[in-house]
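Readers of this paper often ask what the protein records in our data store actually look like. Such a record has a labelled line for the sequence and another for the backbone structure tokens. Nothing more is needed to write down the fold, since each code stands for a local backbone conformation. The remainder of this section carries one protein's record, kept here as part of the documentation.
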Amino acid sequence: MSSNIKKLTWNTVSDKIASVIAIIILMVVCTFPFFVWALLWKKITSLKDQSSVDAYGSTYNEIRVDSKSALMYNVFYMLRRLWIALIATMLKEFSFLQVQLIVLHSIVMTIYVTLFKPFELPLLNRMEVFNEYTIMLATVHLLTFTQFVPEPETQYIMGWSIIGITVLNIAVNMFVMFYSSLRQLKLAY
């Protein structure tokens, strides 16, 4: 018997165990970003100390610690993943609403990254802004794949457009990665 969070069953002992485990996992996954937020908020004055870096550094690696808004980047990142998962699972029957909510969140994240520049290195901030804009462009394209655009020709063209945006994003990220690696090697030798 399979159990999921939308349709919990309590008929057999194994159904009850699976339902309880599903509820616990959902609660942990939903509260973890807020736990990270509370931890960072509590320790904000000591995040540059070596003891904090050793203990909690992975939650804010390469993120500016001089700004509370910038420090929340990883929390927003986790919430974004949770948001997308909840939209995909809870709104299966409402594809247009799914796309609108994902576009809305993409716009909010683009504004956040553009305004607060959460990373320590300017290159990482520029890359994140570029990535957010390409994600936003791709998600806006998803509107053409809902029931409100019934023409297959339009969807076909928009499909190629999304592929182009994705290839551009991958190419730019790979170029920056290779360029940075070569630069690091040049500086090392």
Notes: The CA atoms of residues 80 and 131 lie 14 Å apart. The chain has a mean pLDDT of 90. The radius of gyration is 21 Å.
